[in-house]
Specification:
It is built from four helices and no strands. The protein is mainly α.
């Protein structure tokens, strides 16, 4: 179970929006040991989640094999 400190997890699991928030937190902050993340759920709700930008790009690359979102180039100097 992902540690959700500001919501009651049992209440969140009752709605689709709550399940999306749980999945989003799990992807952003990492799952608990022994917790499994369903790939089908990630694909289904990917567009509805607010993920950290670099993690989002990594998941896009791992799941679909290409980047789906664009991050503007940053100048290093």
């Amino acid at each position: 179970m992902a540690f959700i400190w500001d919501y009651d997890r049992k209440e969140l699991e009752k709605t689709e929006e709550g399940r999306i928030k749980i999945l989003e937190r799990t992807l952003n902050y990492g799952p608990e040991p022994e917790e499994k993340i369903k790939l089908d759920d990630v694909k289904k709700y990917f567009g509805k989640m607010q993920l950290f930008p670099l993690k989002q790009r990594l998941f896009e690359l791992l799941i679909w094999g290409k980047y789906r979102s664009l991050i503007p180039n940053k100048k290093l100097f």
